[in-house]
Amino acid sequence: MKLGIEGRHALVCASSRGLGRACAESLAAEGVHLTLLARGREALEDTAAQIRRTHGVTVHAVVADITTPEGRAAALAAHPAPDILVNNAGGPKPGHFRDWDRATWIAALDANMLAPIEMIRLTLDGMAARRFGRIVNITSSAVKAPIDILGLSNGARSGLTGFVAGIARTHVAHNVTINNLLPGPFETDRLLETARQWAADNGLPEGEVLARRRAANPAGRFGRPEEFGDACAFLCSVQAGFITAQNLLLDGGSYPGTF
């Protein structure tokens, strides 16, 4: 299927590795030009170079922190009018709520709720004026099934979900959609970090924790980042113009509910 977005431009946050990079790769495979954003220069430039070689699209690599006003300004200076925005930021560290002070909570809200809201604010009107826009927020399956040691993420990402539910319906008539992708257990650095925390808390070997998590998933495995990237690319397609304000769960069937 041709997704109809060849020649469009996407701004993909936190895209030097993991699920952000997977989204960038899948968009580039459709001929989408990219602005990639991350804090680490070496990994970001390596990713940008590889995507250029593989897909032949234009790639701007911006070293910046999307959670800061300066970082957001730098991202939009590279390409002020993106057609596609993929909001993403590393999740807060796992831990226990009794250890989190106000500063810790504010940092989590800045990264996983307020920064994506601000990026939406900065790009939404231009998309509406051009009569095309696709915004995808990478959140977490924890929005639907909270994970106890990820309380910072549970709270911040749920706030973003509530905001999107309100704003998305006000712009779909202008062919601008806003949706959330909720990853379950994908084989990323984040999953390994969470497994290490769980193993340490429960006195178990990390390998055993990972094996148990794979076996517990109805799919019997972890997700592959490219599967996630392709789902993102579809939500950015012309075919997905009637999909908005949705939370698409990619978890191999882990979530047991009907809704």
TrEMBL record:
Family of this protein: Belongs to the short-chain dehydrogenases/reductases (SDR) family.
Pfam families: adh_short_C2 (PF13561)
Organism taxonomic ancestry: Bacteria, Pseudomonadati, Pseudomonadota, Betaproteobacteria, Burkholderiales
Keywords: Plasmid
Protein name: SDR family oxidoreductase
Domain of life: Bacteria
InterPro entries linked to this entry: NAD(P)-bd_dom_sf, SDR, SDR_fam
